[in-house]
Amino acid sequence: MPFPAGGGTDFIGRAVGQKLSELWGQPVVMDNRPGGTTVLGAELVAKAPPDGYTLFVTPVPFSIVPSLQAKLPFDPLRDFEHIALYNTAPLVFLANPGVPAKSVRELVALAKAKPGVLNFGSSGTGSSNHLAGELFNAMAGVKIVHIPYKGSTPALIDLAGGHVDLAVATVTSAVSMINAGKARPIAVTSLKRSSFMPQVPTMDESGLKGFQADGWNGVSAPAHTPKDIVDRINADVAKILRGPDMIEKFKNEGAEPAAMTPAEFAAFIRSEIAKWGKLIKLAGVKPL
After folding, report:
1. CA angle 237, 89, 166 (to 5 degrees)
2. Could you say which of 41, 71, 180, 222 has the lowest number of CB atoms within 10 Å?
3. Which residues lie closer than 8 Å to 61 by C-beta, 6 or more apart?
4. Quick one: 267 and 124 in the same domain?
5. If you ran DSSP here, which 8-state letter would residue 24 be given?
6. What is d(CA 202, CA 194) in angstroms, rounded to the nearest whole number?
7. Nearest to 213 by CA among 156, 285, 138
8. For the whole model, what pTM was predicted?
């Protein structure tokens, strides 16, 4: 797990690991190795024996970091067997109550009337939250200024306090402020509405056709892990995702179960690396 314990990715990963443990009749231990925006954990797995006993919780930053770091200690495609996607999780665009825009159409009109005046907060430069905001700028033909924070919580606090106009955050981190009337949801970033907040429209249905900037998580293994092991883990993850208790756990975290074959997951990661790389160049974010 390339993140600290306690976050949404960790919670969902532990839920999947627990179900695999029950299915396999042996412990599945979550080893939290945060650092380097997933690089530390990914490197450990890339260099582990390809025997199926060391797996990597593969989150969306894994596909972003190749465009942010000039030199990685692994190749994100060549050094892994990408086994299965297991969930997607949309982000939500939020406005503070003082911003008059209540829809995507109104927000685009406001941003065009005031180019470079509106701003949005994110969890940090190069985060999926930041890049979702840049994707909005690109697709809507506007310029909303990015304000990076050290995490989503301070960005949302400043949004509620009226210090930033907009913010991009996970649906679960935003829901309490929405319910308290301190933030107004504009749209979610998935192609389908979130089951966590089904009343909020998508960017796609609001006029920005094809807009998609989901968070996601999956499982990968070191390159050269035998195909029968890869296929077995893929089938077992897919089986777990169909369970009503897992569907409920995912829903409570604002996530949606999402199964893929190993070939589909590898192609998906390749497309995500290309998409985020293009956005990073567009946003002018310099590699570290």
Report:
1. 170
2. 71
3. 2, 37, 38, 127, 128
4. no
5. H
6. 8
7. 138
8. 0.89
Contact 38, 220 (CB under 8 A): no
Q: Are 108 and 63 found together in one domain?
A: no
Tokens 């009109």 belong to which residue?
109
Which residues constitute the domain of residue 46? 8-87+215-283
Q: Are residues 72 and 116 in the same domain?
A: no
| Run means of pLDDT, 10 residues per run, the chain, 288 residues | 88 95 96 93 98 97 92 96 96 96 97 95 90 94 94 92 95 89 96 93 97 94 98 98 93 90 98 93 80
Reported as half-sphere exposure (CB side, CA atoms, 13 A), residue 200 has a value of 28
Q: Tell me: do 115 and 160 sit in the same domain.
A: yes
Give strand pairing partners of 170: 91
CB-side exposure of 217: number of CA atoms within 13 Å?
A: 28
Pair (78, 165) in one structural domain: no
Q: Are 127 and 61 in contact (CB under 8 A)?
A: yes
CATH classification at residue 99: 3.40.190.10
